[in-house]
Amino acid sequence: MSIIVTKGSLDWAYPPFILGTTAAAMDVEVTMFFTFYGLTLLKKDLNLKFTTLGNPAMEMPMMGMHMPMPNMMGMVPGVGAAAGKMMKNLIKKKGVASIEELREAAIESEVKMIGCQMTLDLFEYDRKDMIDEMEIGGAATYMEKALRSDINLFI
């Protein structure tokens, strides 16, 4: 299985790591290719934000109900940070693994994590700021894995 990871926000970080670690636990060989904003998920120090804009389906459990957040609310200063804090608290309260824990599980499960060389160069990231387990490769490296995969996901 191969997964292209293109988003680096808290809410977009969960699907690739959950799917990748679940597949690895089922003895599937998994390669995750982190490119553009997804590459930030391989930084040693994570400071993940929560995406409120462009997410009209977002509802937060509050006061026993599911409170929808109008898309425009994300433009109000501080709302995104507050929503992120609420989400992190909810994740902790419900006992959901953190992204750091899921990333560590991926490492322990021998999920191959490839950081995009072009993105490293484009955004001027320093290799020393990234996790040691990250391999570096480009589109051809990903394609080599994808062409041999039964499942290819773009997240």
UniProtKB/TrEMBL annotation:
<protein>
    <submittedName>
        <fullName>DsrE/DsrF/DrsH-like family protein</fullName>
    </submittedName>
</protein>
<feature type="transmembrane region" description="Helical">
    <location>
        <begin position="17"/>
        <end position="39"/>
    </location>
</feature>
<keyword id="KW-0812">Transmembrane</keyword>
<keyword id="KW-1133">Transmembrane helix</keyword>
<keyword id="KW-0472">Membrane</keyword>
<dbReference type="InterPro" id="IPR027396">
    <property type="entry name" value="DsrEFH-like"/>
</dbReference>
<dbReference type="Pfam" id="PF13686">
    <property type="entry name" value="DrsE_2"/>
</dbReference>
<dbReference type="InterPro" id="IPR032836">
    <property type="entry name" value="DsrE2-like"/>
</dbReference>
